Amino acid sequence: MGKLAFRDMILTVFKLRKVCKLADAPGSDRRYEREASRREKRKYFSLIVFPILPYLFFFGLRRVEKALTFNPAPFSPGQYWRPPAGAEDVGITTSDNVRLHGWFVPSRISPALATVVYFHGNSGNIGNLGWLGEDLTARGFDTLIFDYRGYGRSGGEMRDERDLYTDADAAYDYITRERNAPPTRVALYGQSLGTAAVADLASRRKCGAIILESGLSSGGEMAEIKAPLFARLLGWIGKNRLESKQKLSAIHCPVLVAHGYPDDTVPTTQGLALFAAAPEPKELILVPGAGHNVCGFGGQTYFDDIASFIRKALIESKDRAPKTALSASSR
Q: Can the peptide bond before residue 111 be classed as cis, meaning omega within 30 degrees of 0?
């Protein structure tokens, strides 16, 4: 036997002994089984989880968008809650059978000059808006202030902008059908997110005037300002388009656009874009220093401006000239 053949035989024997020792070692089979089990689990995990990751990402972004768009505050016993003087608690049922809560406040002047429906912003509820109802009724307007679904004492949950528009329709139907307000003597007054409800409602149904206070031109344009990279890459995922500027072309009544200057929440450029898109006759009020709280900052002078606009739009319509009124005032 040659030296090389003998060496190969010796190496083979040592390898066999090593294999035998491993096979005889306590727990070697269990370790192998555990490793095989882990590999199998990782395989199935990859097969199950990886395909659904895009869906988790998609619906996760949708939830973030919803939280940014709607920030409801349901009524709680400890919160500040003061109805306007003379207010009547009212229940409004939507077309999908959700019960909304609101206050109907009769005008302090009889007969009322017109009816104002107020649409609040994306957060809070009507509990701290009693003063606003009093300011409007003191100027001769019946006023409805209500909470969207999920807000205040209203039932249901706000899922997307379609629910917002459904609630707006219900408020309009309540005023025109149950309170018998003529549509041409109804003024729709929206603040911030409420301007999206007003623009949509007025584009589909008859009204006498609309007020867009601190409003956004569209959800997409707001995203371009606040998060431009996100808007460009993932804007297509958004569910709440809020295309107010686009809807203004279908409105056939006087429009008042009011905005604070500057406004860090909804930039003033958004209000200017709404004004540019609005049909004639239209008016613009810019309030330096008001930020996102135009009516609170503007006070009684601002409410006088609103009342004057509504009177011109609804009461003096025959004498109204089709011109644009621009004013920038500091209050």
A: yes
